[in-house]
Design a protein that fits this description.
- The complex is a heterodimer of chains A (118) and B (111).
- Chain A is mostly beta strands and 118 residues long.
- Chain A contains no helices and 11 strands.
- Chain A is 0% helix and 50% strand.
- The mean pLDDT of chain A is 93.
- In chain B, the strands form 2 sheets. In chain B, strands 2, 4, 5, 9, 10 and 11 form a 6-stranded mixed sheet that branches. A 5-stranded antiparallel sheet of chain B has the order 1-3-8-7-6, with no helix packed on it.
- The radius of gyration of chain B is 13 Å and the shape is globular.
- Chain B starts with a strand and ends with a strand.
- Chains A and B meet through strand 4, strand 5, strand 9 and strand 10 of A and strand 4, strand 5, strand 9 and strand 10 of B.
Chain lengths: 118, 111
Amino acid sequence: GAVVSQHPSRVICKSGTSVKIECRSLDFQATTMFWYRQFPKQSLMLMATSNEGSKATYEQGVEKDKFLINHASLTLSTLTVTSAHPEDSSFYICSARDSLTGRNTEAFFGQGTRLTVV
Amino acid sequence: SQQGEEDPQALSIQEGENATMNCSYKTSINNLQWYRQNSGRGLVHLILIRSNEREKHSGRLRVTLDTSKKSSSLLITASRAADTASYFCATDATSWGKLQFGAGTQVVVTP
């Protein structure tokens, strides 16, 4: 079945540093990928839609200069948390859907990245 | 913003019992999907039901969709301890697969 690989699974960084998270679709092409954030015992909140070859679309309230998204190929999207602060600590999850399938198809999720900013 | 509301927020049952959780949403949709998440892990897709479908089955899972009420339900029959997880509904109202998630139901199945 289709697989989305997300790396790293866990990262601890110091305040003020930047962290890059990668999301790869392993056996399908994805012109669009999605980045979510999840706080403990809460649901997934969509942060942004990553579009291959163009700018990402950010949800209301999400700082685009804080969360940089790059979707340079049909199989890779990256999320960079810039100048991280403790309040950025969270679980970040990406998802993708096979671009060649129709609209009524499932999304595949990465394993998630647990970011801890100290 | 999240579109879906789910209830109950938490459900505790014994093995062998059935578990039912409900999801409501606000706008027209193309499809509604149910996902499962084990603690601290990614999401696993369970079932997708299209807006023109009313019921769908997959193994011990049964999903219903009532577009007139903008609601869906997920039934897990003959639950097992391994079914312990959080379950989320997600609605897709776009052509590019953007999902809006419900608040989730935390299910605990005790042996």
